[in-house]
Amino acid sequence: MNKIKLFLLYIVFAFANVATAQTKVSGIVLDKSNQPIPFANVVFKGSNTGIVSNEDGRFYLESPNTYTALLVTSAGFSDKEVPLEKAVNYNFKIVLGEAEALNEVVIFTGKTSKKNNPALDILRKIWERKRKNGLYQFNQYQMQKYEKVEFDMNTIDSAFMKNKLFKGMEFVFNHVDTSDVTGKTYLPIFINESVYDVYGDNKLKKVKENLTGNKMSGFNGNQQILSFVKDLYSDYNIYDNHLKFFDKSFTSPLSKTGIDVYNYVLKDSAFVDKKWCYNIVFYPRRKNELTFKGDFWVNDTTFAIKKINMGVTKSANINWVKDIYIEQEFEVENDSVFLLTRDYMMSDFALNKKEKSKGVYGKRTTLYRNHKFNIQKPEKFYKEEVNFIDNAVYERPPEFWEENRFEKLNKDEAGIYKMLDTLQTVKRFKQLYNLVSILGSGYVEFKNFDYGPIFSTFGYNEVEGLRLRVGGRTYFGPNDPWRIQAYTAYGFDDNKFKYGVSGKWMVDKKNRVIISGGNRRDIEQIGASLTTTNDVLGRSFASSALFTTGSNGKLTNINLSNVSIEMEAKKNFIVQAGFSYRTLESASPTFSLDYYTTLPSPANPTGVIQSAVKQSEANIQFEYMPNRKTIGYGVERDLVDSPFSHFFVNFSYGLKGVFDSDFAYEKIQLFYRQPIIIGPLGRTNITIETGKTFGTIPLGLMSVIPGNQTYFTIENTFSNLNFYEFVTDQYTTLQWNHDFGGRLFARIPFMRKLNWREFIGIRAVHGTISDANRAINASGLPYNAPEKVYWEYNAGIGNIFKVFRLDFSWRGNYLDMPDAHKFAIKGSFGFYF
Length: 833
Prior knowledge:
Elements: H1 7-12, E1 23-30, E2 41-44, E3 50-52, E4 58-63, E5 69-73, E6 80-83, E7 88-95, H2 118-129, E8 140-154, H3 158-161, E9 177-178, E10 185-201, E11 206-217, H4 223-232, E12 242-245, E13 248-251, H5 258-261, E14 262-272, E15 275-284, E16 292-299, E17 305-312, E18 321-332, E19 338-350, E20 359-373, H6 379-383, H7 398-404, H8 411-423, H9 427-441, E21 444-446, E22 449-451, E23 458-461, E24 465-474, E25 482-491, E26 496-508, E27 513-524, H10 541-544, E28 556-570, E29 573-586, E30 595-598, E31 608-610, E32 613-624, E33 630-631, E34 638-639, E35 646-654, E36 665-677, E37 683-694, E38 703-704, E39 727-728, E40 730-739, E41 757-768, H11 771-775, E42 790-800, E43 804-811, E44 823-829
Parallel strand pairs: 1-7
Antiparallel strand pairs: 1-4, 2-3, 2-5, 5-6, 8-10, 8-20, 9-10, 10-11, 12-13, 14-15, 15-16, 16-17, 17-18, 18-19, 19-20, 21-22, 22-24, 23-24, 24-25, 25-26, 26-27, 27-28, 28-29, 29-32, 30-31, 32-35, 33-34, 35-36, 36-37, 37-40, 38-39, 40-41, 41-42, 42-43, 43-44
InterPro entries: CarboxyPept-like_regulatory, DUF5686
Protein name: DUF5686 and carboxypeptidase regulatory-like domain-containing protein
Signal peptide: 1-21
């Protein structure tokens, strides 16, 4: 995930100062042998303000009110009241003694029993009623939603504040505060506020959110920051069996499978807002799994959740995140309806999980109000989407925010806007921001122009030798209605310049009607992908990898021109029609694309051979990506990294004679990818590609099964195949990959601390070639088609040093083919949560 690189900038900063809360306390809960007691309840006496100690028994608690005592409880230990002699109390050591026999309720310690546990009886009633609680009780609902997202630097001492890095930015230290969850000092660096009108229909299973106001400061206008925020804080329902955060599936404490991964303890019962509720504490049965610790209050008649607090355990197999803390509060609309009114989530991002490591808080607060029910909207209402930017939404006056903020900004939040706007005028800060922006986007930003992508600068192949590539794009802002991109490349062995240029113009913002066109003259490894597009500036890693396994000389000189028009007919459904013209000829003396224009015969034993292909082609394609989330309204949008299904269908028509084109044919290609989250077992990705060409075509237009002769994993290729090892005009492939997310290694004691993750997969392809296409082949390349299904399988280990993955793949059959790779090792780099 490239957007995570942007957080390196945040982690560079962090600051400390004194807090403004009235009562603060931190410490550790121990037993009589000085061993930490994890998951103990710590509350201010006489209040509902509390927290659960972490795995090491440590806690931090803060309140704007004044309290004079703590109440500490834990299963199997006597309750203890701790007096607070002053407002700020740090480093308490609280020792609990073993409990005497209890007659009122059965309380369990350690791994709780799955039998005769009153907490589990209550949990089962929650399962029975979960689809009858809250918004599910109504056919339709409406409400207002206010969302505030904030990023803060944390855990920086005074020595760090004096670092020369912050010269000229010292004024920001006037805005530090202290977290009421962790007790760490922090400095806000980004804030975004949004107001929505929300409509839902439980019968149609549709939800629509209309943005009515947005206000942002700190990295203003940065699309990648916004898309990263949206991906981090995707919506979730606490009643669901699994909750998705950071592209990972956590088992909910209210899940039907929770009994297998959580311990539950019935701790207390009391009135909460005039409703009698039970208090249940939960904590993980095993380390390294994606689970939470915390407690919830549940009503005794509706079995609806009144309040829940939970945090991710430190041992959970997740990178770059030290803590995740969630609070949800529900209010009683009437005697039987509990509605979510407040949702708070805080994440602590850091390079490591050490207690004193510096990091970044990401906080989201969501509030709901003005609920209305059973006001039906036509189905068409939910299908209509706003695809263009309404600038008024981003320019609301102060009066709008005074009226529509559900809760006032505190003193520190109110000063963030001015402070951050000032910070962005500081030269040193802009230099740091630009550096990290380059790492995140791959482009160097200038006024109205971006240079890059810098990661494509160097390459190597047997024809060009060392290859140098430079390029750029116009960039006036994230919502540009048009964009021009271009590059040029030079090979130091063939001493030739190559180039590519393309342009896009969105002529209709509402329906996203986009006209595009371009031209590219370059060297390419054709057949590096089965499902092809006419992307003029697409980069082929197969022809520009610095290191390869075996020869990569089967390269082609391509001159491609194309024009197209596309429209987003409905949300995430795109229709495109286009025309392209290309010429293809071999770029290497050791590789041929020759074909017969006249077959050999007794009268002409050698036939007539042609080396170059000239081809005009018209195409129409349909692309549908349900549940895809995008950021921005310009001609190019950023994707939120949430998984979504992807359907693609392309019909192509070879136009013989048009611009002296050589062949007439029809081609159909289908692509389908489906991610599936299988709860605690991780995530599966299934990809199917199939296609067929009707007509007679030469090697340059055939469907080549994509091999991979690099040392790196390339998506939708076969790791044990060489280039051109299989050639087809009709094919079907199936790829299955599964990520266990470290769940298997977590159960092996000596591997838990490594936090490695397990991957397995299978790839298979079946294909054929017509007799007519075999007959015109004059390239000297033997046509081999996988008429008997070719397959290979792989296993991998990821999260090595948090950034590296190794894949081991084995060839399943066709072992006797020339130069067959029976085993391959591929690697890949990436930032993963």
